[in-house]
Amino acid sequence: MTTTKKRLTAIACLFTALLGACTGRGPIRDVERTIADTYGTDLQVVSVRALRPSAPLARWNGVYGVYLQDRADAEQFMVRLGRPDEGLATLTGRIDAARQEKDQHVARQKAALAQLQALGLPGEAYSLQATSIYGSARWRVAVFADMDALRQDGAMLDDVAWQALGRIVHGGLAPEPSISLFPATQSAAYRAVLDKGYHGRIEFIGGEPATVLQSLEDGADAWWTIDAAALPAPHIVTERQAELREACYAAIAALRADNHFKTRHGIYVQPRMTVFQAYRIADRLRDAGLRQGHTAYAVLDRADGRMVLRGIVAEDAPHGPDAYAVEGVYAYEFAFATGKLQVRRLPG
């Protein structure tokens, strides 16, 4: 067999393997061999994986991801493969383009991180600034905090960290950072990202690869969000129930005005669904006599030395003529250390 035929056979086997006709180590060996011939030791193949179909990334269905590490900066990136008409020139072209995108991404992340660090970003945190799948500029900041401290009426972060988050929120950064608090117990899975302080093009989190778009959109692990205003939804109660609406929004205004974190640090700390689930807030509200436990508004606060969740529940009127009417609005306070829930009905 001539050298040319051998090369063509190797290339054909590579893409046949990537399409699933070959099994075992074949695809990985062929990818490694092809890349090693072109790049030597400059690039290392970390893994070759079939990309799982998922919205909004359904266009990746049926192809493979080749995960590479650049020896120059130890950063990882990914190239998508799988079409049978791809040849060696296309493969190397894709790798070169993805490598350049990686370099540009890392430079952007380092510049963004420097802005946050100048404002005192806490150590156990990372930054990700990127363009979303919808074309908008996004800046996500993840901070790891001690969630269990609430059960002892303690602080998830120290005052220095809270003050730094306040400076970031009010720092006039563009795009405006979206700050989330993650459990410190999960920091081991994010260790490589936390050590750098920023999210690269590809990060292996908990052993699974996470792209920029996946991490930008996925906040499932977050427990709390940091906000400058914590504005309520505009239609918790409609104008048709004027008295009840006034009572509802007056109660929310009071929560916002007399808030420990707003007073001390200029920020609000608001729960994500994970918090409601972990502390069974909906079940506790139903046990207190409410037909439904959906919280319309809530903020973390400190009252009389206790860490508490203060919220508003608007209970639907299920069988009335107005589909948007509510039967009543309730204010509640949940103490994390004791598990005690207090509920009161608002007038109207």
Structure, briefly:
The protein contains ten helices and 14 strands.
Model description:
The chain is of the alpha+beta class and 348 residues long. The protein folds into 3 domains: 103 residues, no CATH class; 109 residues, no CATH class; 107 residues, no CATH class. The protein contains 10 helices and 14 strands. The strands form 4 sheets. The chain has a 5-stranded mixed sheet. It has a 4-stranded antiparallel sheet with strand order 11-12-13-14. A hairpin with a 5-residue loop joins β4 and β5. It is elongated. The N terminus is likely disordered.
Mean pLDDT: 87
- Count of individual beta strands: 14
* Rg, nearest Å: 26 Å
Structural class: alpha+beta
Main sheet record: 5 strands, mixed
Helix content range: 25-40%
Number of separate helices: 10
Oligomeric description of these chains: single chain
The unreliable regions are 3-13, 15-24
Strand order of the largest sheet: 4-5-6-9-10
Q: What is the domain tally?
A: 3
Give the CA-CA distance, first to last residue. Answer: 89 Å
